[in-house]
Each structure stands twice: as C-alpha cells, then as structure tokens.
Amino acid sequence: MILIKSARELDLMRQAGRLVAECHAALAPRIRPGVTTAELDAFVEDFLRRHGGIPTYKGYRGYPASICTSVNDEVCHGIPGRRRLREGDVITVDIGVTLNGYHGDSAWTYAVGEVSEEARRLMEVGEACLWAGIAQAREGSRLGDIGHAIQSLAESHGCGVVRDFVGHGIGRRLHEDPDVPHFGTPGTGVRLRAGMTLCIEPMITLGDWRVTIDDDGWTARTADGSLCVQYEHTIAVTDGEPEILTARVA
Ligand code: MF3
Ligand code: CO
Asked: Whole-model pTM?
C-alpha cells in the first residue's frame, strides 16, 4: 500500500530531509585522503544527534553503523571501519535520519582528491541519471517511466545499472511501498500521485550491473570489479515539479 502524505507529514519530511542535506554539506569537506571511514561515521552520528535526529541505519536489520561508506568497486552498504581514504578513490556516503518520526535518506558519491578522468565521467553520468529519474516523478507518470529514464541514459553512456538494489517509498518508515527500480519500461507500473514520497537512488557502474556480497553480509561490490557511483534524493511527488526534500544546502 502506497501512503499519501498530508501537508503536515510533508512538512515533517522536509525537516528530516533538510537535516540529511545539512549533514552532507558539513561532511563533504572532511572527505579527504587519510581520513578513515569510521571517522566519517562518527562525525555523522554526532551531527545528526546534535540536531535532534537519530541515525536510521544503526541497528536497522542489524546494520552496525550510522552511515554506509562504499569505496570504488563497492556498490552500497559498505561498513565504515579502519579503511583510510586515498587520493583518487571515489566514496559513496549514504545517510539516513529519523527526525520527529519521519525519515530522510540521501546518498552521494564524492571524489577523494583528484580522481581519474573515467571516474569523473562516471560521477557525471550517475548524477545525471538521478536527475533524469527525478524529472519523471510527476503526478500521472508511472514508476516504469522513472526506471526507463535512468536506464536509457546510463546505457547510452555504456554504463551499467545495478538491478539488485532499488529505490523505495519513505515516510514514517525508511522503506515503504513502492519499490522504485532504476530500470524498466515506460508506461508501465504504478501511477504516481501527489503526496507520494520516494527515494530514487541509482547505482551506476563503469561495467556490468552484476554485484556480489562480501562475507560481512552487507558490502555489495561489482562482480567485474568496475567502479560504481550512487546518487540518491528523497523527493515528494506534487501536482507540478517534484520537490527535492534532501536538496543540498549552500
Ligand atoms: N539508502 C539505503 C536504502 O535505502 C541505505 C540503507 S542502509 C541500511 O536502503 F543499513 F539501513 F540498510
Ligand atoms: Co534509500
């Protein structure tokens, strides 16, 4: 069942989304060669709690940290630890918060120092895929329109779209109906309505879309070892332009 949010609920979602956006903005300058992913995790947990939020992922299905840090060929759900970032890495930081009972969720891939030309290009394609998906999130469109826009753009650049992880509805719970695949057929699937709140979070690879899961039970990485990026926003469907609830703040 897809929940339609009231004006009051949308306001609470805006507050949760804004906190996630502010947290990304505060974190970004700390993503540098030499920092460990555990240090980034500690910074985010402290930031969210100081602002009245709870890091949603911590303990979610047994997940052991406040954020996901997925480096290079890691696709998502990388667990923060002693790993030190190195010049040329790309790292996806995924942040989720619970604030006043509602959720915000946003992932972004950051360059660590100077990165290769192909990494830079992949980041551009990945972010463009997010925006292409968001552009389809309008009242009357269908879920397949979102997936198709993302998949066709990625594949036109020779990139792969991860199938095993999809976007989702979000609200009082981190994961609500519907699933939001980042691939699909236009004109198919559930029809979108104003008041739906969705996470669109394409994972785009420089190679094949297939992934494997590490022995830690969480870390997903590309089966072919290719680089992967991910860009995620929490958005609200309206009767006009989609509203980006986790839009980056200056
Ligand atoms: N953005 C991811 C998602 O929507 C992050 C979840 S991490 C987890 O599923 F630890 F909470 F699973
Ligand atoms: Co998400």
From this structure: 0.98
